[in-house]
Design goal:
- A five-stranded mixed sheet has the order 1-2-9-10-11, covered by helices on one side. Strands 3-4-5 form a three-stranded mixed sheet.
- It contains twelve helices and 16 strands.
- The protein has one domain: CBS-domain.
- About 35% of the residues are buried.
- Helix content is about 30%, strand content about 20%.
- By secondary structure, it is an alpha/beta fold.
- Strand 15 and strand 16 form a beta hairpin.
Length: about 350
């Protein structure tokens, strides 16, 4: 699979890099022989989201009127990166760290650029606007992007939920008799597939390259880029994680919104870390939280999709980067990519079905 890195300057002088993977012709017979998806459909066709939803007792709930600093404190100290939101005892959606960090970046960007010194973050942590902002205000800002179809009934078919995931929603609040029951996520489906690979048919023995599983454009940052600038790019591209490229184009790490909970856990929040370079940030996190930031998880293009599913399931991650035998970044595979490959959706017809052409 050929790749090309688009850049206008030397690699180490640019902030954002895109690795574009040329489009290929789709398989003409996706439901026959080694590419047969029918066993997976049969495996899931009688499942409902209630079969997978995590128990209510294991979930932290936030009220819509919770102030943003307190919400961030809950997420970071409990070591979670999202939480259901309730209003008048009814669930109304989900808030996550990416939404909060995007809100921080956009709301305070003007001040950040006017006062490009670290102390400004100390001032922002006590600023009235930050202290009085509520979860409801943040959710309202993202209402068009993230909050549609975030609530599913307990009896919703899993195949229907996967169709909705095709629109960009990766987790759902599950209700039963109109009361909050639990959470259902892409990760739950990936875990189910990992536990039942022997029932998924020969398709899981195909390589990710043959299945064309992965994004056509991979967004990466040079490791000298500031964390703040990286968050701005993640917000612009609407992605939850970004690859970090170091010396000689090598993949050296990954930054996601959930990673930043490790250095934003104190109250009042100290936004100084946003001015660190990605290289400094990785060094700091590995020093202060040696058990929280593990090794870079990657795969090869010739690895089977079953191997990728096992890796993602074992490490409880949402994306895995494909690299060459010399550790050059060649692509990225997300949970969404896996589901789109193994369980294609037909959104126009409003149903799940194998795609023949």
């Amino acid at each position: 699979m050929s790749k090309r890195i688009e850049e206008n300057e030397n690699l180490h002088s640019v902030d954002i890099i895109t690795i574009e993977i040329p489009q290929k012709k789709k398989f003409k017979k996706l439901t026959n022989g080694p590419f047969d998806r029918e066993p997976i459909f049969r495996l899931l066709q009688d499942k409902i989201v209630g079969d997978f939803a995590q128990e209510h007792s294991q979930t932290y709930l936030l009220d819509v009127h919770t102030k943003l600093p307190q919400a961030l404190k809950v997420l970071t100290q409990v070591n979670i990166h999202w939480a259901p939101v309730i209003e008048d005892q009814y669930v109304v959606g989900i808030i996550d760290l990416r939404m909060i960090l995007s809100f921080i970046v956009s709301t305070f960007m003007e001040n950040m650029e006017k006062f490009p010194e670290i102390p400004v973050f100390q001032e922002l942590s006590s600023e009235e606007t930050w202290q009085l902002t509520t979860v409801k205000q943040v959710m309202k800002r993202f209402s068009g992007e993230l909050q549609g179809n975030t609530i599913l009934d307990y009896s919703t078919p899993v195949l229907e939920s996967i169709r909705l995931m095709g629109y960009g929603q990766h987790r759902f609040c599950v209700t039963k008799s109109k009361q909050f029951y639990g959470i259902f996520t892409q990760t739950d489906i990936i875990q189910f597939l990992a536990d039942n690979l022997d029932k998924c048919g020969p398709i899981v023995n195909q390589s990710i390259e043959k299945l064309e599983c992965g994004l056509n454009v991979v967004v990466a940052e040079n490791w000298d880029t500031k964390v703040l600038d990286t968050l701005k790019d993640m917000d612009r591209w609407k992605i939850g994680g970004i690859a970090i490229i170091g010396k000689d184009n090598l993949l050296v790490g990954n930054l996601s919104a959930s990673d930043l909970k490790l250095v934003l856990k104190d109250e009042p929040q100290n936004f100084e870390c946003l001015y660190l370079s990605l290289r400094e940030y990785i060094r700091r996190v590995r020093t202060e939280f040696p058990t929280k930031l593990g090794p870079i998880v990657s795969c090869k293009e010739y690895d089977t999709i079953s191997t990728v599913i096992r890796i993602i399931s074992f490490h409880q991650i949402h994306r895995i980067y494909s690299v060459s035998d010399t550790d050059l970044l060649t692509g990225v595979i997300t949970c969404s990519n896996i589901l789109e490959t193994l369980i294609p959706t037909n959104c126009e017809k409003g149903q799940m079905s194998p795609q023949h052409d």
